Amino acid sequence: MKITDIRATTVAVPLEAPLLHSNGAHWGRFVRTIVEVEADNGLVGLGEMGGGGQSAEVAFEALAPYLEGHDPFELEALRFKIANPTASLYNNRTQMLAAIEFACVDLIGKHLNVPAYDLLGGRIRDSVPFASYLFFRNPGPGGAVPEVRTPEQLVEHARALKKEHGFSVHKLKGGVFPPSHELECYRALAEAFPGDRLRYDPNAVLSLDEGLRFGKAIEDLDNDYLEDPVLGLEGLRAVRERVNVPLATNTVVVNFEQLAANVLRRSADVVLLDTTFWGGIRPCIKAAGVCETFQLGLAVHSSGELGIQLATMLHLGAVLPNLTYAADAHYHHLSDDVIEGGKLPYENGRIAVPQGPGLGVSLDRDKVAEYAEHYREVGDYPYDRDPSRPGWYPIVPNERWADPDSPLIPIG
């Protein structure tokens, strides 16, 4: 089996409402590049990549000469062909490698008529648990979906998600409002859902003082972990030494050198593995083996997935014996998907691992065409800006917080 072609299509899939984060916002949509890798046997493997609200079509088209004639089974050779460590200093291709690796794993599974998890060691669970992943958010189009700004609104939103999807773990994406306000919101969640687990992620924008203050103030709650309260491994280590809450990261342990540094001088207790950030499913499994050896906890990180990348997260979660935390997913914030059958359903806070060959998902061509056209209409957006705060940009540590007393306005 040899690769004969690669195609990339950018889609913009609407969110139910714009989502706020410490660096800006998701402007009411996810912009994702769908990758199709075709082989000489007629099979097509699927991949997916984000990109901070921007298309990566042109970049993937430029990789076609690297891939023509390549055997999808030769995944280690693929790594050096696309993301040579020295060459990547000039052109970081790790996330592009991930999308193509997804497609090659999909191709291999289809060629052998086995699901991806059987290529990755065999599944030990049939479904993967997920956290609710709560965001402060602007109102949805026409005000049909309400804002989330106050503790009461946050609890109401979490309660609706728990009723619909069965979540028993709740993650609050913070770093938007002053830490004192977000602490009030976080504690309101704990009070509203006794027995459920909690996690908080301000995306590393708190100062060391604020990180310590927040961490100490939640020690009495049922926390899974405090994720990236401050910037950098040394900042995390300083918090970890003084706060009795496990620390997690998805920002500063995203490759094997950083993982080694964290093993030698522990700063984070839990590593959030992202199939895109790490360059594919297989590197995440390798990293999970290191974490198992050195007794680091594992969770699966979300970088704003549609159904193709979600499938990679599910196959990863299916094969990891040391996955002891619920995964993250933005998925329930999407209004639709580009895969056949529509969005994969939650049941009791879990999503079933696809059982078909390869990744086990197929493209709905009509949906791809619909959301490719929508992308042409609305275009890219800057992930690191908030359109409701013109001229604003984040600094680290941040002190330019949104006003929790001002109602949020619709953005698009």
Automatic annotation (TrEMBL):
Mandelate racemase/muconate lactonizing enzyme C-terminal domain segment(s): 151-246
Pathway linked to the protein: Carbohydrate acid metabolism; D-glucarate degradation; 2,5-dioxopentanoate from D-glucarate: step 1/2
Pfam name, any one: MR_MLE_N
InterPro entries in the cross-refs: DgoD-like, Enolase-like_C_sf, Enolase-like_N, Enolase_C-like, Mandelate_racemase_C, Mandelate_racemase_N_dom
Enzyme class: lyase
Reactions mediated catalytically: D-glucarate = 5-dehydro-4-deoxy-D-glucarate + H2O
Superkingdom of origin: Bacteria
Signal peptide, first to last residue: none
The EC number(s) this enzyme carries: 4.2.1.40
SUPFAM superfamilies: Enolase C-terminal domain-like, Enolase N-terminal domain-like
PANTHER family: D-GALACTONATE DEHYDRATASE-RELATED, GLUCARATE DEHYDRATASE
Name this polypeptide is given: glucarate dehydratase
Origin species: Actinomadura yumaensis
